[in-house]
Amino acid sequence: MGERLLVTLHPGQALSIERLFNEHGKALLAHSPEHVALRVMYISAGFYIDSLLEFETALSDLEDELLEAGNDVLMRKIITYRSRLVKMRRIFSYHQGITQELTAYDYEHLPREQSETLHAINDVAERFERLYTLTQMYYDICGDLVDGYISISSHQLNITMRVLTVITAIFVPLTFIAGVYGMNFENMPELRYEYGYFLCWVPCWESVVY
Questions:
Q1: Which contacts (CB < 8 Å, 24+ apart) does range 59-62 have?
Q2: Is position 202 within any domain?
Q3: Is the pLDDT score of 50 beyond 70?
Q4: Distance between CA atoms of 86 and 31, rounded to whole angstroms?
Q5: Which of 121, 139, 151, 199 falls 20 to 30 Å from 40 in CA-CA distance?
Q6: Where does residue 9 fall: left (phi above 0), alpha (psi -120 to 50 degrees), or beta otherwise?
Q7: Considering the domain boundaries, does residue 197 fall inside one?
Q8: 33/110 Cα distance (integer angstroms)
Q9: Transmembrane residues, as ranges (predicted)?
Q10: Domain containing 25: what range?
């Protein structure tokens, strides 16, 4: 940024800058480069705020879907959102640091003694602070959804394991008894006992009941 020029660098199409110049192009170019720079930052931050607020609705719908019928597909989607939010939070943290420096120190082309410039700097700082807060909040919500889904899955797994444990406790003794008396030994004295059949059922029923 110089006295009469402002250079911006972006890897692709900048929607916020295009929207700004389409709406206020001529009036904007009549101002100083620092005013244009602050306005570009302000509009860019607003563009991201709008996108994040739209994401809040999608996140709320995703939360309802997860509670009604959670599955691995929804979990992958939440984890993807969480990864993107981490990157956005890091970027907005950098921007927040820049705007904090602008509000704390004097720069040659940003005269803070002018009330208009100072208000513009504060507005930009507030927007990036809000962006950082929103990304942190949505990141925490995604983390809570992941933890909640894992807790529900663990609870369901515990119920399943409990049922399997009961079934195992019932059938293991029965299988053992059946295996013993299913062996083809010629000499098994209890088989010739008059009440041997009924005595065999006693431990079977005890294993089922207890």
A1: 59/138, 59/141, 59/142, 62/145
A2: no
A3: yes
A4: 36
A5: 139
A6: beta
A7: no
A8: 9
A9: 163-183
A10: 15-148
Task: Report the pLDDT value the prediction gives residue 23, as an integer from 0 to 100.
Answer: 67
Angle between helices 115-181 and 33-69 (to 10 degrees): 20
Tokens of 105: 């120190």
CB 37 within 8 A of CB 7: no
Per-residue pLDDT tens over the stretch 109-153: 665 556 677 788 888 888 889 999 999 999 998 888 888 888 877
Confidence (pLDDT) at 132: 92
> Which SS3 state, helix, strand or coil, does residue 174 take?
helix
List the structure tokens of 124: 């930009």
| CB 40 within 8 Å of CB 20 | yes
Confidence grade of residue 178 (pLDDT, cut at 50, 70, 90)? confident
Runs of H (alpha helix) within 33-114: 33-69, 72-104
